[in-house]
Amino acid sequence: MTGSRAPLADRRILVAGASRGIGYAMAQAFVRAGARVSICSRGTAPLELAAEALSAHGQRVHHMACDVSDPAQIEAYVEAAANALGGLDVVVNNASGYGNGNDDASWRAGFEVDLMAAVRCNRAALAHLRRGTDPAIINISSINGSRPTPRAAAYSTAKAALNYYTVTLAAELARERIRVNAIAPGSIEFPGGLWERRREQEPALYASIRDSIPFGCFGTVEDVAHAALFLASPQARWITGQVLAVDGGQSLGA
């Protein structure tokens, strides 16, 4: 892949949490754009299937099982990915604990996976990014992190903390020209995801949320992947410390 067909040619990109859904779509977009990619997830079988499918686009995709709630596993994965790719230019933190309850387990999942996994992954990757080309970090947040969200206090609080961490880290690293941004998706529907299940199990809630979105539909994983492609590219070289909503106007309350 050369020229305009490969806008991310030879970029070395790590995507944490990429066996399905948004993470997989981002990894697929990166590979198609010419990047060298490493992915991880907790489950081995889905990860291997994802890596095999991604590698069909023209180059081998590095993959490694990793429980991102475990600091030692994160550090080992980052080092393995950097070794496999020959360094790191972009780190994408997409893993989520989906702590939608209000019990201690939900709060722990939000803190350890949605927030601390990103903190630890970025910390482990920083030395590699400092040696990278146009280095960038992309944290995947949610519009729930910027507004009160009933039924999802733990998840939303973790994403709010991730947003604050994103802009603070951006300020810390700006003098080193390491860009740090976040993407905050709205309600995204994909096979096997939350909104597909609710369409089948809670059709009234599904329709209510869909109809409340100004664009009149749920987003797709490709919508988020396109935003990630931009933030990982040289076209975003002057952008840092931003939380980009990708939500069809959902957070506007229109």
The average pLDDT value, as a whole number, equals 93
Number of domains: 1
Fourth-tier CATH superfamily name: NAD(P)-binding Rossmann-like Domain
Helical percent range?
40-55%
Give me the CATH architecture, please. Answer: 3-Layer(aba) Sandwich
Q: Report the C-alpha radius of gyration, rounded.
A: 17 Å
How is this structure best summarized?
By secondary structure, the protein is an alpha/beta fold. The chain is built from 8 helices and 7 strands, in the order E-H-E-H-E-H-E-H-E-H-E-H-H-H-E.
Question: What does this 3D model show about the protein?
Answer:
This protein is of the alpha/beta class and 254 residues long. The protein has a single domain (9-189, 220-246), classed as 3-Layer(aba) Sandwich (Rossmann fold), CATH 3.40.50.720. The protein has eight helices and seven strands; from the N terminus they run βαβαβαβαβαβαααβ. It has helices spanning 21-32, 44-55, 71-85, 104-130, 153-173, 194-201, 203-212, 221-232, and strands spanning 12-16, 36-41, 62-65, 90-93, 136-140, 179-185, 243-246. It has a seven-stranded parallel beta sheet with strand order 3-2-1-4-5-6-7, with helices on both faces. Strand 4 (90-93), helix 4 (104-130) and strand 5 form a beta-alpha-beta unit. Helix 1 (21-32) crosses helix 8, helix 3 (71-85) runs parallel beside helix 4 (104-130) and helix 4 (104-130) packs parallel to helix 5. The radius of gyration is 17 Å and the shape is globular. The mean pLDDT is 93.
